[in-house]
Amino acid sequence: MNYSHLLFDLDHTLWDFERNSSEALNEVYSIFNMQRFNAFSSREFVDKFKEVNTILWEKYDHDEIDREYIRTKRFEMVLSQLGIKIEDIPEDISSTYLSICPTKGNVIPDAFEVLDYLKGSYEMHIITNGFDDIQDTKLNSSNLRGYFDRIFTSEAVGYKKPSKEMFNKAVEMIGMDKKSCLMIGDNLETDIKGALNADLDVVFFNPDNLDHNLPVTFEIRKLIDLKAIL
Question: Which of 124, 129, 172, 220 matches a 20 to 30 Å C-alpha distance to 77?
Answer without folding.
Answer: 129
